[in-house]
Structure formats: C-alpha cells, structure tokens
Design a protein that fits this description.
This protein is an alpha+beta fold. It contains nine helices and twelve strands. Strand 3 and strand 4 form a beta hairpin. The chain is elongated.
Amino acid sequence: MSDLYRTLGVGRTADQAEIKSAYRKLAKKYHPDLNPGDAGVERQFKEVNAAYDVLGDPDKRARYDRGEIDPEGRERGGSGFWRNWAKRSSTGAGTGSSGAGGRSRFDFGDDFEAEQDPIDDILKAWRSAKARQGMGDPPGGDGAGTGARTGPRRSPQDLRYRLKVPFVEAVAGIKKRVTLSDGKVVNLTIPPATEEGTVLRLKGQGRPAAAGKPSGDAYLELQIEPHPFFRRDGRDIRLDLPVTLKEAVLGASITVPTVHGNVTLKIPKAANSGQVMRLRGKGVPSTGSEPPGDQYVTLSVVLPPEPDAALEAFVENWKSATHNPRHKMGV
C-alpha cells in the first residue's frame, strides 16, 4: 500500500466527509460477501479498510501527512506507543475516534451508539495493575488508576457499541440480522432472559489488523428499552390490566398480552382493582437450570370515559350497596 489517498481515490485536500464517503463506496464494492472466492477483491477490501483506519482519524491522518507513521499506521523510526497514549490522554483523540467526544467513527444506524476506543480501558487497567505492584505509571500517565477490567481480553482492533433492544426481544430472545457500517449483514442471536448490560461478541467484526493479523472483534452492550405496560421482576413479568365494570362484576374471559403472545385469562365474578392473577410459565423463559417465570396480572377496574346515564341511575337506586371499603381504616 504505497499511498493511502490513492487507495481511497481521494486527493490530499479532501475533507473528512469526502474520505468517509469514498471509504463506504469502496468497502461495499470490494466486500468479500459480494465477491466470494475472489482473493484479489478480498485483498483490496483489506487495503481500503487499512487506509480508512488512518485517514478516517484526523489525528492519525495528520501524523501520516507529516511522515510520522507509515501507511499501516506504524511508527517510523521506532515505537511511539506510549507517546501516542500520552497524546490521546491529553487530546481525547484515539484510534478509531472521530475527534469529537471520543466517539467511534463507525455507525451501525439509529439503534447503535459507539463507545470510546477500547484501548483507553486497556491502558487504564495496565496503569492500575502496575500501581498496585508499586511499578508506577506508564510514560505520559497521570497516576490515576481505575481498577482492572473483567471479562474477555480486548485488542486495540476491537470496537464496542451499545445496541438498543426492545423489551420483548430481550426477554423472549430473538435472532435478527444487523447491518454493519461497511454494509456487511451479520446474524445476531439475542438469547432469552437477556438482561441490561449484557455484552455480545461479533468475532472478526472489529477493525482490520495490519500484516495479515486477524481483525478485531465487535462488542455490543445491550440496552433494554422500557415497555409501555410490561415490567420485569426477576424471572417474572408484571402487567397492570384494565377491566370494565361489567367484566369485574359478572366475570369474563378476556385476551391478555404476554411476552410470548396473547392468551386468554378468566376473570372471576366480583373481581376488584388490585386483585392479582397468575399466568403460570408466561414470564421469562427457562434458561439452563432456571425454570420459566410467571406473569402476574394486576386488575384495575376502569369506568367508561364518558358519563353513562343508565349506570348513574342504577347506582343511585342501588339499595343494597351498603359495603364500606374504608371500614378497616376506621372511617
């Protein structure tokens, strides 16, 4: 790869929007999924990604223009890893960032929100571990440890995102197709009983690596969207269900929504607001040794939205209505 600008087909005076547009067009053109078995196209796809990895980052682009890094993003004349880290710490710009707010330049659509470059977390964990061992901070550090990270070991080529998931999909589980920023479509499995903050890994969907090394991974942190009427309580689902006065007084069989679909619930006669009924097994699905949860339905008697003259006349002449629901309150 002799010249990154030539690889993307743009001039050296191109702005970041032009560079991004050129990258997207070429990434789709040379994507391996659209050209199966073509080794030449696959090589071009890698070169395009590697070029954008440098030119798509304003800081790295400026360093490339000054001759400080080569077309593969490596230091010229020795390693400057810690110097780069210090610069990243002071400017907020890092590998894969847009230069604004530390956000990744990759865009997965409205449901995705890119997080700050994961290399920052790796370096913070390194500093914390070394500080506990009495070895001080890496060059350019500020001496503030943050504690070691848990979970899988991350690579500088990894990307992290937040993905908003509808409540029902998170509880019941779903398989869906997700389009990545380079136009590639991947199959994503959201397992049943998924909780807020669950992290899914898309192997090989991170930044491309140089010199034939494997690409990084993409990590998706799931954010569960609230539902207008379902609420999760451990492995159970709770629902406030409005019923009419007639259904409460005479009893009825009514349709009730669950995360698994609609079911029929039998309301007993003389049902009251606040009465709780259980739908066995209609909560969070079974996972491993955990049994399925239940759905608990709390009844709420709701009068008609408009005044009903017949109902008013009946209640006015209801001679046997002597029950005092506030008796236990002493009033």
